[in-house]
Structures are given as structure tokens and as C-alpha cells.
Amino acid sequence: MPEMNAARGKDLFAERGCVVCHSVNSVGGNIGPSLDASNMNIAREPFEFFASMWRGAEQMLHLQQADLGYQIDFSGQDIADIFAFVQDGEIQERFTEDDLPDHIRDIIDNGPSIPQN
Ligand code: HEC
User: Fold this and answer.
1) Is 29 in the pocket of ligand 1 (CB under 6 A)?
2) Among candidate residues 66, 58, 72, the one with its CA nearest the CA of residue 107
3) Using CA atoms, how far apart are residues 21 and 68, in angstroms rounded to an integer?
4) Which of 14-23, 44-53, 75-84, 108-117 is predicted with the least confidence, judged by mean pLDDT?
5) Which residues belong to any copy of the Cytochrome c domain (predicted)?
6) How many CB atoms lie within 10 A of CB 94?
7) Ligand 1 contacts CB of residue 10 (under 6 A)
8) Which pLDDT does position 112 carry in this prediction?
9) What gap in Å lies between CA 65 and CA 49, rounded to an integer?
10) For atom 41 of ligand 1, which residue has the closest CA?
11) Residue 50: which of 62, 59, 42 has the closest Cα?
12) Does residue 22 have its Cβ closer than 6 Å to ligand 1?
């Protein structure tokens, strides 16, 4: 298993756009379920976490096409670090609006485009 870095995961969570649809510490959107560590619905096991993330994949792909204008790309290490962040209640308490890059904050404020089903 890779070394996991929750502090780096915190940055990735904002920068890669997870926060557009998922809140942590009440920061972020509510299109997907909250990923607070206290939310018992979050997979506690990395492979299960990735599998459940996959279920939101259609919306993520839509977000990158419609709103982000760049591809959301992950290395295995990125996923591991995001997983660590999602498990880490202490680091999550330090997640605030100040962690959001401007272009991500804009998408949250304007509301992301939702795929039409
Ligand atoms: C454009 C919106 C969007 C983005 C961006 C997004 N997700 Fe999701 N995600 C969803 C939706 C919607 C679901 C619920 C899918 C379902 O259950 O049908 C979901 C589900 C999940 C789940 C399962 C949660 C549970 O309780 O079962 C995890 C974990 C998850 N996403 C992680 C992430 C991570 C990590 C990122 C960033 C890399 C991310 N998501 C980015 C929309 C998004």
C-alpha cells in the first residue's frame, strides 16, 4: 500500500474539484453525499472507497467537460491521499473556504451544470 498523506489529500480534494459536489466540514457543494469522516457512509477501506467514487463518475466527467475546462486526472498516490483526508477528522476540521482555489469557488458559487438524464 502507498504511504498516505492526508494533508496533501486536503489540497487535492479542493483543487481536483471533489469539493464542488461533496462537502467536508460544511465547505463545498451538496450534489453528492458529504464526505465528512463522521459520515459513516464513507467507505473505510480504500478499494471500496474507489469503487463508490466510480458511482459518481458520470457527474465528474460532466463537470470537467462543462465547468472545469480541464481533465480531472489522478495518480494512484492522489487517490490514496484523498482517501486519507476523507478518513481524517482532525485535518478535516481545518478545511475551510480559504482552501478553495478561486476557479473552484466560482463553480460552487455559480452552481455547477448538472447532467440531464
Ligand atoms: C460533479 C459532481 C461530483 C464530483 C466533482 C465528485 N463527485 Fe463523488 N459523487 C457524486 C455523486 C452524485 C455521488 C453519488 C453517486 C450515487 O450514489 O449514485 C458521488 C459519490 C461519491 C462517493 C460515494 C459516497 C457514498 O457515501 O457512497 C465517494 C467516496 C465520492 N463520490 C468521492 C469523490 C471524490 C474523492 C471526488 C474528487 C476526486 C468526487 N467524488 C468528485 C458527485 C461528484
Assistant:
1) no
2) 66
3) 13
4) 108-117
5) 4-90
6) 12
7) no
8) 82
9) 24
10) 18
11) 42
12) yes
Q: Are 6 and 87 in contact (CB under 8 A)?
A: yes
Taking Cα atoms as reference points, which of 80, 79, 81, 61 lies closest to residue 71? 61
Please tell me the predicted confidence (pLDDT) of residue 110.
Answer: 87
pLDDT band at 89 (very low <50, low <70, confident <90, very high): very high
- Residue 2 Cα to ligand 1 midpoint, Å, equals 22
Res 72: pLDDT:
84
Domain residue extents for the chain: 6-110
Residue 117's pLDDT is 56
- pLDDT, mean of residues 41-49: 85
Ligand 1 closest atom vs CA 72: 38
CB of residue 84 inside a 6 A radius of ligand 1:
no
In this predicted structure, the answer to whether residue 68 has a pLDDT above a threshold of 90 is: no
In sequence order, the 6+-apart residues with CB closer than 8 A to the CB of 82 are 9, 12, 13, 16, 18, 74
DSSP single-letter state for residue 24:
B
